[in-house]
Design goal:
Elements: E1 2-7, H1 11-26, E2 30-31, E3 38-43, H2 45-55, E4 61-66, H3 81-89, E5 95-105, E6 108-112, E7 115-119, E8 126-132, E9 135-148, H4 156-159, E10 171-179, E11 192-195, E12 200-206, E13 210-214, E14 217-221, E15 228-240, H5 247-255
Length: 258
């Protein structure tokens, strides 16, 4: 099997990455950055997201171990390097598939595991209409909006008032970002958790430019006259599942100061 390791620029992480690399090579694995069958990220959530953006098209198995800060998306902790190696070598290891979100803009597609975020440019506000499966929902004036998966619900979505959703649930969530509410503009002003088959569309964007942020990437969109749609895609990623991982416990440890 061909594999590649993505790591942060931190000495402890690089030492552990070297241990993992040598152990896998000793067991017949081949180190290949170009077309790996296995991609291991040694860092935090950002390292994992960058690995996904770089390699999701070739559908490798992803494995991740936290040497960053929060590491909520990481299956393995800093103390589980040996367990990670053993699970990789175990032909009966557990895997999990996760669907990616897809955004369609001007006929082009972008994919994300966490979220897409539309934001106004240069500190101004934007106005846009929101449709769900073709049915008009609301008109928003504010800083923008965010569309997240259940995995992404623990990130920026939660920070701006979105619901924290169990990561076993496949859904799509729409969250307004700093909406204006007065006698001229009013909106639901609440996160909207939708079934996985729903398509969220925004159009009539004014002004017709904005920032699009997704996972670890960003792009400035100009002259937007077509609708921008978001949905759960048919594309999936596979990642190595740590059977010792308890997401309820992990959620408590990540967000509560005990």
């Amino acid at each position: 099997m061909k594999f590649f390791i993505s790591t942060i620029d931190e000495l402890d992480a690089q030492k552990e990455a070297s241990i993992i690399k040598n152990k896998l090579i000793d067991n017949g694995f081949i180190y290949d950055e170009r077309e790996p069958n296995l991609v291991i990220s040694v860092g935090g959530d950002g390292t994992f997201l960058r690995s996904i953006q770089k390699y999701y098209k070739i559908n490798p198995l992803f494995a991740n171990i936290n040497f960053g800060n929060l590491g909520y998306l990481c299956e393995y902790s800093t103390k589980e390097v040996s367990e990670l190696i053993n699970d990789i070598l175990d032909i009966n290891h557990q895997e999990k598939e996760v669907s990616l979100l897809v955004a369609t803009i001007k006929g082009k597609k972008a994919y994300a595991i966490n979220e897409f975020r539309i934001e106004a440019a240069q500190g101004s506000t934007i106005t846009f209409d929101v449709h769900i499966n073709g049915t008009f929902l609301e008109k928003i004036k504010g800083d923008g909006c965010l569309v997240s998966s259940s995995i992404g619900s623990s990130g920026m979505s939660r920070s701006i008032g979105g619901a924290l959703v169990d990561n076993e649930i496949e859904m799509i969530q729409f969250v307004e970002k700093a909406p204006i509410n007065n006698k001229f503009y009013s909106s639901i002003h609440s996160p909207y958790v939708l079934n996985k088959d729903k398509v969220i569309t925004i159009n009539n964007l004014k002004p017709n430019s904005c920032w699009l942020f997704y996972d670890c990437k960003s792009v400035f969109l100009e002259n937007i006259s077509d609708p921008i749609s978001f949905k759960i895609s048919d594309k999936k990623i596979r990642f190595l599942k740590n059977k010792r991982n308890n997401y309820i416990q992990k959620t408590r440890e990540a967000f509560l100061n005990e």
